[in-house]
Specification:
By secondary structure, the protein is of the alpha+beta class. It is built from eleven helices and 18 strands.
Amino acid sequence: MHYVRPTRAVALAFVFLASNLLIAASSGAAVPMQPPPSIEARAHILIDFQTGAVLAEHNADEPMEPASITKVMTAYAAFKALKEGRIKLTDPVTISEHAWKSEGSRSFVQVGTQVPMEVLLKGMMVQSGNDATIAVAERIGGTEQAFAGIMNSYAKQLGMKNSHFENSTGLPGPTHRMSARDIAILARAVIAEFPEYYRWYSLREYEWNGIKQQNRNGLLGRDPSVDGIKTGHTDSAGYCLATSANRGGMRLISAVLGTASMKAREDASAALLNYGYTFYETVALKKKGEALLSPRVYKGAVDMIPAVVAHDLWATVPRGSAASLVTTTTLNEPLIAPLADDQPIGQVSIADGATVISSTPLVPQSAVAEGGWWSRLTDTVSLWMR
């Protein structure tokens, strides 16, 4: 595949354009929608973290070599083990010969020594150390091969349809693959489920055993809104980068696979992020617990109950267009007690024209117990007459 590296002038021009458009957008005015930037990569995707809306994509479902972006799944499996109490950050992990002899990037842990789990995780996330990664995998799975099976199980649970793992590090394998969309799905899960560990991806450097190494994600230094996630590179995979940024409370996630250089993967990721923030906004339309209706309840201890929004309702829309969205509510009538406080009794939907872009159930503000015999009898008659 032939790659054309964008010139510095082109890159600066795009940043200048994006900055001006962001200034215009901040005034609340609608920004004329433009197509996504042309990205010199084998595959890419840009999604909104809150809603999962896809803002740009190319070859996003094609399984490709992910290189060290694989380690995001290794981290996810480790975070699961931490949450479930199967391991602790303070656990000493013995470094096997297999881990010590690993190819590629290293955290310089020594065979036979015991290293705390937290040190290994940071070595994997910040320095991309293959030795640290394999040590983590062996501690959790017994062997790296068994750990790869755990990774594949989690991938299936998350709906990653075009991924398969052979190892924990991302070294090339005949069937070791991830798609750009799957990387975005995984990144979204890590950020949502494990914010206390995700923050380690923003560390600019990490030192162990007297050796200080830099984070390979150059965007951490170029863009203060970027706080992760992971680089990857092999000769066959090219240069890859999964990125997340948070600007003004709006978080975007991008994945770029198969670029020609470190600079190219950073420029491509920056262009995607700037595009998303320039032309889109994610707005909270309804808050969890917000009462929208007060429907009649039959055969209950009360005659009416507020119907409230079950979850925060967000939408990602072209910047400046949120005012044109239409809210629709429906009820599963008649409502007959008893009703649990988490029982869906209707739905609220947000539509852009004829397209529903977001929805969530309506639930009772509180549980409704069954009423007395007289209430039940009279409401039975009322139901007959409906």
